[in-house]
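Marked as duplicate of an earlier ticket. Keeping the data here for the record.
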Amino acid sequence: WVLFAGAKKGINPEEILLPEALKAAGYSTAIIGKWHLGDQPEFLPVRHGFDYWLGLPYSNDMGIQVEGKRLLPLMRNETVVDRLDQRKESDQGSLTKRYTEEAIQWIDKNRTKPFFLYLAHTMPHNPVAAREQFHQLTVNPKQGFGASVAEISWSTGEILDYLREKDLDENTLVIFTSDNGGAPNWGASNGILKGRKGQTFEGGVRVPCIAWWPGKIDPGSTCNAPASVLDFYKTFTALAGIQPDDKVKRDGTDITDYFFNPGAVRKPRPYFYWHVGYLQGVRYGDWKVSLLGGYSEEQQQEILNSTYRSTLFSDHVELYNLREDPGESNDVSEEHPEMVALILKLAEEEINALGEYTRRGPEVRKTIMIESPVTLIE
């Protein structure tokens, strides 16, 4: 699920993260913004390949109760440099500006050698916040959400303008994407897609991904092949000329060719929709099987209890053609039983490898637990 303040669990120090691989190849590395892989010292980003960090260690709705306030620790490396009031828009509304300025300053200091910057904006996570001038730029009924999106647009423009100004644009790949679909009750819109954040329908997981690299990626080109943030490890290491030799099995595929040859016809690849310990769906090419109709009553209760009871179950395993029906409105499982059988076989292999819920499969690598965790703000 997600890690809260003072969680026992965090990223295993034995794992080689992307910044560690890039740092070993001579890159400067930084994270600006949200981390959320553990807030104990052993888990912080500067212990996992990042040279520098400014940001929050978890989501901005996880403030620690102190004297009637809910406070968020703004970190620089391993030190709390500010305590933000979670309920004050003037505090949270400053984050996008601070992140943007910090990102540009860090690039400026490191622009004479290869660099990798992971900018993980806090917004538009709830509670959404933005500076007042951006409230004037939105027509979204949920004004805070619209304002925060407008300010992230401003932030992106500031960074791209800086790269152009310093003649770094033609040697810098910029990726803009998100971690999940939107929450309409907070102000987001997933268009025709079914579902929302916290669900494994397309509205919960499908996001735009924009790749910008002047002189190398054709402006306005579109690639319709499915990809995932999981692909960035192998993609970025390949672009950096790194050949990992640790024999560790990692998810993802090198999608460099998606950027440079977007219209190519590609073989289908499976995508697994894991959530709260259960494999809830599998996509293969244009086809997606929803497994939510195949769980027992006990399993359904376990899923409901882990998802604030937001999961919607059908009474059978469903099949959708996402190319023709991205809104998942037309179940075609009866018309294509051979495709259902093929994808169920992929699901079975995945579950055998990783297990489900509390049963760990043979390919699950261990994390670590801290015996007596403490919060960053006492």
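See parent ticket for discussion. The first strand starts at residue 9 and ends at 10.
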